[in-house]
Amino acid sequence: MTPPPVDRPATDRAARVRAHIEESILPPLVALVIAAVVGDILIIMFGQSPGDVYRQLLEGTWGNAYGFGQVIYKATTLTFTGLAVALGIRAGLFNIGAESQLASGGFLAALIGLAMPSGTPAVLAVPACLVAAAVGGGVVGSIPGALKARFGASEVIVTIMLNFVVLALLNYFVAAHIHVSETLHTPEIHAGALPRLAAVFPRFSGSAANTTFLLAVATAAAVWWFLFRTRPGYELRAVGLQPDAAEYGGVRVGRVWARTMVLSGVLAGLGGLNYVLGYKHYYEEGFGTGSGFLGIAVALVGRNHPVGVMIAALLFATLSQGGLAVNALVPKQMVDVLTAVVIIAVATAVPEVRRALAAARSAGIGSGGTGNRERGTEAPRGVSVPGSPFPGARFQRAADSQFPIPESRP
User: Fold this and answer.
1) In this structure, is residue 63 part of a structural domain?
2) What is the pLDDT of residue 8?
3) Number of domains making up the chain
4) How far apart (Å, rounded) are the C-alpha atoms in residues 78 and 84?
5) Could you tell me if residue 14 is inside a domain?
6) Is a pLDDT exceeding 80 seen at residue 369?
7) Contact present, 329 and 250 (Cβ < 8 Å)
8) What's the predicted TM-score (pTM) here?
9) Which domain holds residue 194?
10) What's the DSSP call for residue 182?
11) 259 in any annotated domain
């Protein structure tokens, strides 16, 4: 008997999905295993039981309402900064300026909250502060974007320098003009404050978790939609994958770079709302110190995907809060070392795991030799990609045919 026909497109699609899942999940898992082994060694060096330390870490974070609330609060800011960095990397840009963009967004939101009179309805005050935070971060992000698009200036150098310049200017304005006496923060905002989760769930009493977390979730969903369901998002990913091929296809690369840096700054600026509107209700010097740089780690561990960024933000927030929970057994700095190990492990595990998967597929094992095709990152059909980690890799446009790159543009 003649065997039934095989649905080749469906088989190829399933193989690509399986390959994508393998390359998305396996590297972080390998990195976490490496970090756990290193953590065990460090804990034993301090004369403690790894099981006891990890148990206390989990009980102090996810095991009680206060600890979990603190994890949510810290993960909220990291989600915004992680999304900001991830969006830039998707376009081939490395935004190291999330620190200053975060501070600018929080500062401008505080100014708007101070300018509005007390009693302003939340339906007006909150959106006004949100727009102010987006503008504050977007303006700072637009500077390296414009310099990159116009002069080809390195966004890495420009954003690093802007961190110093912007933070110094903000500290000057606060200290010289609008600070509360003998403090380094502004007066409390008159309108626009967001409620804490404890107002709805009393068990979270005492924690800094607030409803900005819901905004972070919504923002992550919006970034996903933008990247994978819109034409500008397709162009952004095409530029990040191969700018020369994208330009040949009609994409204005400089415009994409400038727009991406603005959007990246907007995302980071929104992170300032977590502290200013949701927690302290004022801007304070150094309120987001470290969150912008840690956002780089969040983006890398999350594989520059909005869902992965949220998971990675929860991971790093758990480690941050867990360091306080286990301080009675081991120094808090040990958890900081563990955080660095996770980052290093991810950086080394990703290429190694990809290489192993590619070798397995070439031998007919795993996903049927589908190669390194990740849905949504294909370049135009027939375009070879220089420097591809897999020899002879070619990118197809079929997976994103609903948003093709035009052959020409007026």
Assistant:
1) no
2) 66
3) 1
4) 10
5) no
6) no
7) no
8) 0.85
9) 76-307
10) T
11) yes
